[in-house]
Amino acid sequence: MSNILQPSGPFRRILFCAGFSEGADPAFAVALAIAKQNPGSQLFLLHVIPETDAEFWKSYLYEVDNVDEQARRVMDEKMARAYLDRVPPGLAVKPLYRVGRDHLEILEAARELAADLILINRDGGGLLHRALFGKTAEKVVRHAECPVLVVPMAQNAGPGVC
């Protein structure tokens, strides 16, 4: 991680976009480093569930009792395995879940939390994916009201963050 630029500043409310992808790991490492550099900060781990996926599963699973409770438990377990188990003691962390369009939910959460910084990994996907869906990181950067740090995947990381 020594080759990644680590900004410091008055970052007290840090929003990390927890996508559970391979590309999110380097971004999470940077989020942890920034939170540690800013004593008293709070790190929010936001995972957005695409609305189309959520609607499919709700319609399919509503025959099961307590489906929302079960889904929350599964998401909590996944969040713990992917991120929370790596958080050092004493660092304030809060997982958040939203359902909807990823960039819109990220921007809304940042506004509601009065985030000082948003950390997001650079999107994957080929040309067709980008043409049809756009890039989440790009949409967040264009519309965010606070600084956004876009972290490339480890194998694409150069001497700094672009």
Structural commentary:
This protein is α/β, with parallel strands linked by helices and 162 residues long. The protein has a single domain, classed as 3-Layer(aba) Sandwich (Rossmann fold). It is built from six helices and five strands. A five-stranded parallel beta sheet has the order 3-2-1-4-5, with helices on both faces. The longest helix has 16 residues. It is globular and about 40 Å long. The N terminus and C terminus are likely disordered.
Total domain units: 1
Strand content: 15-25%
Give unreliable regions as ranges.
1-6, 155-162
Give the biggest beta sheet.
5 strands, parallel
Tell me the strand order in the biggest sheet.
Answer: 3-2-1-4-5
- The radius of gyration computed from the alpha-carbon positions, rounded to a whole number of angstroms, is 16 Å
- State the separation between the terminal residues, measured CA to CA: 15 Å
Q: Report the CATH topology name.
A: Rossmann fold
The CATH architecture is 3-Layer(aba) Sandwich
Q: Specify the overall morphology.
A: globular
Structural class: alpha/beta
Q: What pattern of helices and strands is seen along the backbone?
A: EHEHHEHEHHE
Any idea of the CATH class? Alpha Beta
- How many helices? 6
CATH superfamily label: HUPs
Tell how many strands the DSSP assignment holds. 5
Task: Classify the helix fraction into a percent range.
Answer: 40-55%
Q: Please state the average pLDDT score.
A: 80
